[in-house]
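Could you join me in thinking about how sequence relates to backbone shape in a protein? To get us started, please write out a protein record for me. Would you write everything just below, so we can both look at the same thing?
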Amino acid sequence: MTWKKLSAGARECLERLKSAGYAAYPVGGCVRDVLLGREPGDVDICTAAHPEAVMALFPRAVPTGIVHGTVTIPTEDGNVEITTFRRDGDYADARHPDSVSFDAGLLEDLRRRDFTVNAMAMDSDGEVIDPLGGRKDLRSKIIRCVGEADRRFSEDALRMLRGVRFAAQLGFEIEEGTRAAMRRNAPLTAKVSRERIKAEMEKTLLSPRPEMGGEMISLGLLAHLYEFPREFGLSSLAALPATAEERWQGFCYATGFPITALPVERRLRRAVEHPEAKLIPMLALTAQDLMELGLNGPAISAAQKKLALHLLEHPKDNTVEKLKKLL
C-alpha cells in the first residue's frame, strides 16, 4: 500500500513537498478509503511546511484557509488541500478555533482530529501511522471520537452531523460513548450554519443507508430546525432513486420536515413541495384529451395537478377510464 493508490496530482504535491525537505503525508479520509479498498476521493495532505512555504512551492496555490494553515492546490485530478501541522486554541463559537499555532508535529496534529478512522496518515513507503486505533475501529466498523467525545463536539458541533454521515456512508455503527456525547451536545448544532447542515443531511440521504437521517433526528441534532413527530418511518428511503430530489422528497414526506427550513436550490424546493409535477407528463389523459373533454387554459392545468396528486397515492389509477371518472 503506497502513495500510488492516490491521484497523480496528489502524488505530485507530496513529492514536491518532500523534495523541498518538508515532511508530508496524505491524511484522513483518503487513508481510510485506501484501507477499506475504496477509491480515494478528495486528498488532504498534512505537512511541516508553513502556509507561506506551501504558497511559494505551488504558484497556483489558493489561500482558502490560510489563517488555519490550509492552502488549496488545483491539479488536473481535482483540488488537493495542504494543511500545516497545527495545534488548535479554544473554540469560542463551537465551530472554529480562535487561534492556531504551527509548532506541532504529525502525532499532535492527528490527535486534534474528529474520529479515529479519520486520524491516520501514510508515509511514502505505505506505512500507516495510526497512533489512535483507527485501523482497529475500521475492522470493527465503528465511528469513535478521538480522545474525549464531549470535548471534540464542543470544539466543533458539525462533527456530530459528520459522524452520523460517516456511519451512513460506510455502513458503520456509532460507538456508544460517542453516541451518548452526541445526545448531550446536540443543542450546539444550532451554531452550525444551515448550509453545512443541509450538506451533511443530503450526503446522508444519498448514502446507502439514508434511514440514518433518522439518527440525526433521534439524537436531537436537528431539533432547532423543526419539531419532529415522535414516530416516523424512513426504512423505504433506500428503495428510492439516489437523487437529491427523490430522497429529500421521501424524507420530508415521512417526517413532515419543511424543506424551506434549509437553504436549498429552487429545483430541489419545487421537487419537494410539488411532487406531483413529475407525474403530469405521464398522465394517461393528455392535455389534448382534456381539451376535447371541454377544458381549456387554467382548467387543464388545475385538472392535471389534481390527477397527478391522486396518482401519488394511487399509481395504478393511471388509465384513461379511471382518470375520466375522477374528473
